[in-house]
Amino acid sequence: MTKDDQILEEATSGEYKYGFTSNIEQEIAAAGLSEELVRFISAKKNEPEWLLAYRLKAFEIWQKMEEPSWAHVNYPKIDFQAISYYAAPKDRKKLNSLDEADPELLRTYEKLGIPIEEQKILAGVAVDFVMDSESVFTSFKKQLAEVGIIFMSISEAVQEYPELVKQYLGTVVPPRDNFYAALNSAVFSDGSFVYIPKGVRCPMELSTYFRINAENTGQFERTLIVAEEGSYVSYLEGCTAPQRDENQLHAAIVELIAMDNAEIKYSTVQNWYPGDKEGKGGIFNFVTKRGLCQGIRSKISWTQVETGSAVTWKYPSCILKGDYSIGEFYSVAVTNNYQQADTGTKMIHIGKNTRSRIVSKGISAGHSENSYRGLVQINKTAENAYNYSQCDSMLMGETCGAHTFPYLEIKNKTAKVEHEATTSKIGEDQLFYCNQRGLGDEEAVHLIVNGFCKEVFKELPMEFAVEAQKLLEISLEGSVG
Amino acid sequence: MLKITNLHASIDDKEILKSFNIEVKPGEIHAIMGPNGTGKSTLANVITGRDSYDISEGSIIFKGEEILELSPDERARLGIFLAFQYPVEIPGVSTTNFMKAAINERRKHQGLDPMKAAEFLKLMKEKMALVEIDQKFMSRSLNEGFSGGEKKRNEIFQMAMLEPSLAILDETDSGLDIDALKIVSKGVNQLRNKDNAFIVITHYQRLLDYIVPDFVHVMYDGRIVKSGNKDLAKELEARGYDWIKEELGV
Ligand SMILES: Nc1ncnc2c1ncn2[C@@H]1O[C@H](COP(=O)(O)OP(=O)(O)O)[C@@H](O)[C@H]1O
Ligand SMILES: [Mg+2]
Fold first, then answer.
1. Fold category of B2-248 in CATH
2. pLDDT tens per residue across span A102-149
3. In this complex, how many residue pairs, one in chain A and one in chain B, have their CB atoms less than 8 Å apart?
4. How close, in Å, is residue B18 to chain A by CA atoms?
């Protein structure tokens, strides 16, 4: 055994830290997808007629669609009839404080490393914790309400602010957008709703932790954020899932809408279970995230750190409709073992003087495949549009793959587009240089990889950046080679 | 401090070091000179434990301990430092963070807590002054876009920060103008004390005007062929290496 093999062996025996299940009583629908089921979900949630109609229409569309196959990923065919589409904790009593929460649930928080009390006090983070589709706890709601901010589960919002939800739901990602969007629109269970009124700067980072807990359950959350004129919000999303041998499907939709001079910053740290060392199990993560810069000088930034999931298919995008609007995409995607990621962004320039910036860092190790797929589309109307794209790949070892698929569609001659791409390997010379200063192989790799991702990490809120670095270290353990 | 005996090292079945011997005591400065390709950098790499060399024979005793079986980072933490002939770039990692990581890793192995921020900053300031390096280099990516001279000066800065027992300077003087050379030498002279030692690999006797060696060794074809005091360096400067080859009969 060579030294590198040995390091690999030792470190990859580190197990997935979040691979536990909670024994919270669940109400789970039988597996299978049908019109009846769509009606069941809607009825369970006591939804208004228009929403049921929306779901049924989406279901009809979905039935006529084909699963897409263009992504650079490979996975066994999903049996959509074998999945259960609804699971919610049974204990649905509303909580006034954390003391009233199920102790098992609190232990789950703990294992996830979410120091809720601490976050509340120290960082001023309001946490909306979504456990298997159902929002069970929302903190800080009152404080936010004082400035007119609405932050609640989307199911609650449907009950309390039906007009608002109806006005915006599906306007950025319509059901027919793609196969998984249609599926989500038919069966979405819960998610978050955020509304920032005109001129309000959200006084804290809003955060949601999603977690899949029940077995054989798909998770289909739906997030909708509306930022009115001149408002600002930073939203954090973190995800982990328990360890199972079966694959689980996660198909979410996130819609963002920014009006004149509004800014939305959306940060994700995604650590869904990636499967084991042989590629068994893990989450299929097929997500549609899109932001609409509706107003003049509006701005939407996506920052994502993707370390989990067996298969990832995800392109957080910006439609730059308002003149002078700005779209940004900062991404770190790490794949190890047999993980596959096909991720990137779409920047659709429509308004005049719109600008977009793409910084993508892909790190591949083990037998994984890591693809960047990005579209920059500059429409006829988009005078003086500007895009800068930078796509860097880092390879660790000989058995992984890194791919870049940049697409450019330019229909206006005044456009200015810059693209840079690099592929590098962690060099023996870099490792030795670090070793010579006293750093072991693992520390050296962390340092080099963190340096590589620095431009993206600096976009994350402080406490999230620390978590992202830790996740990166965990997912790359033992990949020196 | 360091005793190398009958060391044979090869790469790709090609023997580079052929029965190499040296003994370095605390407080000493040894200069190693010799034509290109005689194995000077190989020697530095083998002492610091770089992989890819095959050691067929010999021993390297450092502070009374055989270190041939130790990994490069273990040797570094024992107090061996190499100022690289070609320092490596690490994008996105500042010199500050690199040094913080190095110092704290060593402390961790000594069972100490990470160095306090204030203490670290004070240390940085002090050592920056010593090698007259500007603050702006500390926050830039390590060696990225540095000129040759800046890279070398940064190596000496790192040496000053880590205060090794044995520092090996591999052609640190190459590519330095006279001012930079003086600064680098000043750094070495100020760090020098009775407990540490230096091996200075160089082509030119010029450096040895500033860093005065106790011993000068001429290396040729993988071994030391002649040793003397600093006058030997002067003689080499005046007469080149050919007379040594003649003496050796090659
Ligand atoms: N990676 C390598 N593979 C094969 N030969 C090498 C390698 N590195 C160095 N050499 C050879 O070893 C000899 C000594 O090189 P080096 O130690 O760099 O010499 P110096 O530093 O004295 O100029 C040279 O002949 C060089 O070509
Ligand atoms: Mg050399």
1. Rossmann fold (3.40.50)
2. 565 555 555 555 555 433 332 334 455 555 444 434 446 667 888 999
3. 74
4. 24
